[in-house]
Amino acid sequence: MIRQTALAALAAVSLSAAAQAQTLRIGLREDPDILDPTLARTFVGRIVFASLCDKLFDINEKLEIIPQLATGYRWEDPKTLLITLREGVKFHDGEPMDAEAVRYSLNRHLTLQGSFRRGEINTMDAVEVVDPKTVRIRLKEPSSPFLSQLTDRAGMIVSPKAAEAAGRNFGTKPVCAGPYRFVERVAQDRIVVERFPGYWNAQAIHIPRITYQPIPDNTVRLANLQSGALEMVQTIEPDDIKTVQRNPKLKVVAYDGLGYQSITLNLANGPRAAGPFAKDARVRAAFELAIDRDAINQVVYEGAWTVTAQPVPPSSPYHVKEFKPQPRDLDTAKALLKQAGATLPVQLEMTIPNSPDLRQVGEVIQAMVKEAGFELKLSAMEFASSLQAANRGEFETYLIGWSGRVDPDGNTWTFIHSNGAQNDGKYSNPEVDKLLDAARVEQDVAKRRALYAEVWQIALRQDRSRIYLWHAKNIVAHTAKLTGFQPVPDGLIRPQGLKLQ
Amino acid sequence: MGIWLLKRLGQVLPTLLILSLLIFGLQQLMPGDPALILAGEERGDPQVLAQIRAELRLDQPLPQQYLAWLGRVLVGDFGYSWRIREPVGALILAKLPVTFQLASMAFLIAVLIGVPAGIVSAVRRDTAVDWAANGIALAGISTPNFWLGIMLILLFSVQLGWLPPSGYVPLTEDPWQSLATTIMPAFVLGNAIAGVLMRHTRAAMLTALSQDYVRTARAKGLAERVVVVKHALRNALIPVVTLGTIEFGRLLAGAVLTEQIFTIPGFGKLIVDAVFNRDYPVVQGVVLATALIFVSLSLVADLLYMAVNPRLRTA
User: Mostly located where (chain B) (predicted)?
Assistant: First the structure.
């Protein structure tokens, strides 16, 4: 009896606390890393930046580039970009956001020691201040992906005064020009931001405060949403979609993402690439033809993902619709193995980052390819270790995903090009290299898509250099009281337009 | 007494030194290059990797890395977290009260359940009460923390809506809310330890109850309650105190799974996240701090023995 009274009292306290001042509490999958746009590298960190730091450009639902801190752009020639800036924009410390601040921020992204933006914008040669509202960016060579880099962290403009004063510790108290300003951060517990009254687009901001709370356990994150301790969660598992849909107080939004899941194949990286699988494209074709992507999607992900055969997702204008996954075909697979003269069963190993769903995917693939004549050994490895193993060539096949980039170049070049730094399987075909380089500078959408279609045809269908399995979706869940969420494929939670009743 | 204390403290320093060497060495055995992990999806850029290695001195020989770290630790500088760039010392200090509160509450729950249950089941040996207590203790020990944690969250937070499902509010900020956020994890942790404490209390009490002095006390015609509490229990407590301090130490070292489930930002979560992110300075700092806590606790245990057993005071 006493215990019940005490619990009821506790409940009353926790409810009254929840009813206080309007705060949007968002559950994140993990704790973000440092909140400095130059040094940050986690995806969850980008979700927090969406409220802290505005960018020169943003993207919309159709992945079109739209102005944010900029008002427009013009290519003076293929190597010179002229950007005009919005008037009257202020940083959180009251300093004006002008051409000088843009020049400072871009140079900081390019030159600060340990910058993770350097690789994104290293085609940039110089930034010139034309007048306080205009900057001119000179590139070393023509680059189609460059503009899209300015829609993410490389396009975030920081207050030069605050950045100069804080140096490398800027991330412990970031000062940008976003709709919310930084209040506090308790590591592994919460990040709190509050509405910035001087925001240039203040009429789009309706919620006074946002708290980001990292909650790594999927079940617990969802429980927080169900019990009203959170208003929104960044992501839920496909298995939980139905649970949320049944609850009238909650809403779930599943929409296309930018990334993919794939199997990297070791073709020429060290001694592990010596077998018939690495040497003969027919053996790899047999392997791919033995895989039923739809079945994997149904069995492991409740059919929530979009199966694919290419690295560019359907949300992108560069997705090649005609390039579809081949249906499972055991007869052809067996015939190909016979043609190649491989000794059966073909011994093969697959490295898998140790997560329950990917292990399950591995088991399904193992069962499928066995029917074609492959003896697939699964090797589950902790994520950090698997990355290193892949990098050193200590793998035969590697089940690995990519979070995806707005521009197709970010999903392809570094993985497929001979000089690509993340080409762990060391695939190399000069013809493909030429096509990828051409796609990098081609500005016309249709022509560029045609170049990528050729890359898929050669690198994937002919050479079987890599196997793409599916594009995951962003699955966001929130209370029905929250309205105005815009599902943009990059999976960020943009505070503009969000309302809480 | 003073000399004894000094001697004990003299043993602590070499222990910590050897330990720090061990931590450092073990970390090197962990597969996975910290630079690769820190670089995240920018890992493709060799320039970025080289820069990270240089900045974190990963390109220097190991003994040099170790000595540089030790030198800084001796002046109280634990370095900063590679991932979020906060000083490790500050991180540890921020997590300490959280873990301490959780550990104390869990320990209190364990003692309140475990010790009385152990006494009762020893006194009522081989009765239904004894069997029931043993059964419950066994269940307590063998229930996985993460399972019990999730069940509690589903029942008390999702179904009944009585308690916040996870998170942590400091005692100083809002005592009620603080208790509400920690009661479930404390129960999960305490529950497991209560079973262990119960079994040990029972065994120690059974030994004590069969001793000659207990028979003498009974023969003197003392009330059974006096016999049990004053004569048997006091003597039975020594192994229980030992066990208690060890368990408390383990709680302070961070309840990894429980903290992860309830998203309590304590030691356990700090170190697990640091290991997965290969955030070496944090791992080193936390392990060293934990070792310090353990060593201090074993000192406390020795002092407690003296309190319960007067014969030890002369030693």
Answer: membrane
Instruction: Specify the pTM.
Output: 0.82
Residue B97 lies in a domain: yes
Please identify among residues 37-76 of chain A the ones whose CB lies closer than 8 Å to any CB of chain B: 39, 41-42
**Residues of chain B neighbouring A172 (CB-CB closer than 8 A):** 85-86
Judged by a CB distance cut-off of 8 A, whether residue A111 touches chain B is no
Q: Do B263 and A220 touch (CB under 8 A)?
A: yes
Task: Specify if A43 maps to a domain.
Answer: no
Closest CA to A317 of A130, A60, A20, A497: A60
Beta carbons of A34 and B85 less than 8 angstroms apart? yes
Say how far apart CA B304 and CA A379 lie, in whole Å: 50
- For A214, the closest chain B residue by CA position comes to B263
Query: Cα distance from A42 to chain B (closest Cα, Å)?
Result: 7
Nearest in space to B119 (alpha carbons), one of B268, B286, B213, B237: B237
**Pairing of the two strands A209-214 and A23-28:** parallel
Q: Mean pLDDT lowest for which of A291-305, A317-331, B257-271?
A: B257-271
Domain identity same for A67 and A126: yes
Chain A residues whose CB is inside 8 A of the B277 CB are: 384
Report yes or no on A46 lying in a domain: no
Say whether pLDDT at A18 is over 50.
no
The model's pLDDT over A324-371, given as tens digits with 9 standing for 90+, comes to: 999 999 999 999 999 999 888 999 999 999 888 999 999 999 999 999
The alpha-carbon gap from B240 to the nearest alpha carbon of chain A, in Å, equals 28
Question: Given B32, B83, B150, which is nearest A384 (Cβ)?
Answer: B32
From the candidates A113, A226, A227, which should be mutated to test the interface with B, based on the most B CB atoms within 10 A? A227
Report ipTM (2 d.p.).
Answer: 0.74
- In tens, the pLDDT along B44-102 reads 677 777 777 877 778 788 888 888 888 888 888 888 888 888 888 888 888 888 888 99
Domain tally, chain B: 2
Q: Which domain holds residue B279?
A: 89-312
CB pairs under 8 A between A and B: 163
Is the CB of A118 less than 8 angstroms away from the CB of B45?
yes
For B82, residues 6+ apart whose C-beta sits below 8 A from its C-beta are B34, B38, B56, B277, B278, B279, B280, B281, B282
Quote the minimal CA–CA distance from A339 to chain B in Å: 37
Q: How far apart are CA A268 and CA A279, in angstroms?
A: 8
Cα separation, B315 vs B303, in Å, equals 12
Give yes or no for A356 touching B (CB within 8 A). no
Nearest CA to CA, how far is A172 from chain B (Å)?
Answer: 8
In a domain, residue B80? The reply is no
Residue contact A387–B43, C-beta within 8 A: yes
| CATH label of the domain that carries residue A217 | 3.40.190.10
- Residue B196's nearest CA partner among B261, B234, B242, B233 is B242
Rounded to whole angstroms, how far apart are CA atoms A168 and A186? 19
Q: Is residue A7 domain-resident? A: no
Average pLDDT for chain A: 91
B178 domain-assigned: yes
Q: Are residues A382 and A414 in the same domain?
A: yes
Q: Are residues A200 and A340 in the same domain?
A: no
**Residue A450: exposed, middle, or buried by beta-carbon count in 10 A (0-12, 13-18, 19+)?**
middle
Q: Would you call A443 an interface residue with chain B, using a CB distance cutoff of 8 Å?
A: no
CA distance A213 to chain B (A): 8
Q: What is the domain range of residue A360?
A: 260-471
